[in-house]
Amino acid sequence: MSSTDFAKNNQLCVYYQGQVLRSESWFVVAVLKSWEHVVFDRTVDVERSIFEFFVPAAMEPEFLAVMLQLTTQGLVSNLHKLENRLADPLAVV
Fold first, then answer.
1. Does residue 87 form part of some domain?
2. Rounded to an integer, what is the distance from CA 67 to the centroid of its chain?
3. Which of 6, 22, 70, 91 could form a disulfide linkage to 76, CB 3.0–4.6 angstroms apart?
4. Domain tally for the chain?
5. Is residue 90 a part of any domain in this protein?
6. Listed residue (30, 44, 39, 32) closest to 85, CA to CA
7. Cα–Cα distance, 82 to 59 (Å, whole number)
């Protein structure tokens, strides 16, 4: 079972990474926190200002709409959906 299948079967969040304009990272985080239950974010690589985003599958459309606006404004770039790095197919849920 792939980690993507595991995530779907166990209701894990979908996972994204993206680069946030360092000088405006406070703003991006504030915007994301203003929508409850849409995303949990944290910095993965401080030097390159790479953030990871954990998004409940049901909230993915809302997350992508917000990120589209932030990307259009030049605050977020290189947003990629990846396999959830916390998915462990051997874990018991």
1. no
2. 10
3. 70
4. 1
5. no
6. 44
7. 16
Helix axes 60-72, 25-33, angle to 10 degrees: 150
Q: Which of 46, 48, 50, 65 has its CA nearest to residue 16?
A: 50
pTM of the model: 0.80
Compute CA distances 13 → 16, 75, 83, 87, whole Å. Answer: 10, 23, 10, 9
Summarised one tens digit per residue, pLDDT across range 11-63 is 679 999 999 999 999 999 999 999 888 899 999 999 999 999 999 999 999 99
Report the SS3 class of residue 28. Answer: helix
Q: Tell whether 29 is covered by a domain.
A: yes
Q: Beta strands 40-45 and 14-20: pairing type?
A: unpaired
Cα separation, 59 vs 62, whole angstroms? 5
Q: Which domain holds residue 24?
A: 3-79
